[in-house]
């Protein structure tokens, strides 16, 4: 096995470990998919679980968002199995008779796209970025096998259905009369993350690039400086509503909060690393400096801050 492939596998495992670390949040039985109205034609289905897929939550641990247009539904992410996708489809029917015509997969992590198969009979396009698609094709089957194992088969049978349409930075599309602008995070959270901006509604939908209740989701195969840049770009748009991959809807204050947190930690780690410092010393300094400001702003600050510092040290190499 080449060194490059080994690193990719390690990064995939890291992302799964990230879920395991957060498994304490994944205790709710997700039998009901409740639709929350965001605006007149924008809706969310928010998962009460965040973390490891389990037999109890049947693999559902991420949010779904959709926009009802004059010519069909634009769906942002499809969940982590075909059975979850079918529940999403049923929930959407409680709002509109319009079928799902377009799907955007925000990124390659399994909980955001394995439900694609549930929509193949209606969707015209399944859309993502080139980097996200390449990662899906490389890790799709191992990810599906992992989800099946940890949920003890409760996700059911799932066919891997890959996106067929590639979007690039700055592309503007009109879906059934709704203007949408594409923003790429330049691998901020993972390779090829996609966010969509609805300029008329002033809503940003960002998958795991954006956060509300929990610390920003940094991973070993993401790019933290680019994540910070993307958050600053989003903040300049001044969205009224921010829809995330996990957790409740929020606003631009969460985006600026996350950019400030990441910038402070990254700057400190980079400086200490260049001076030959040690991660435990940096962690102590960061806790002293940042705890008063950020500890109460996140549900998982104490749990995550050590992982942040250690991972950022690793990314300096």
From TrEMBL:
Pfam families per record: Lactamase_B
What InterPro entries does the entry give? Metallo-B-lactamas, NDM-1-like, RibonucZ/Hydroxyglut_hydro
Keywords linked to the UniProt accession: Signal
What domain of life does the UniProt record list for this protein's source?
Bacteria
Give a yes or no for keyword Glycoprotein in this entry: no
Q: Where is the Metallo-beta-lactamase domain?
A: 61-246
Q: Where is the signal peptide?
A: 1-26
Q: Know the name of this protein?
A: MBL fold metallo-hydrolase
Q: Give the source species.
A: Psychroserpens ponticola
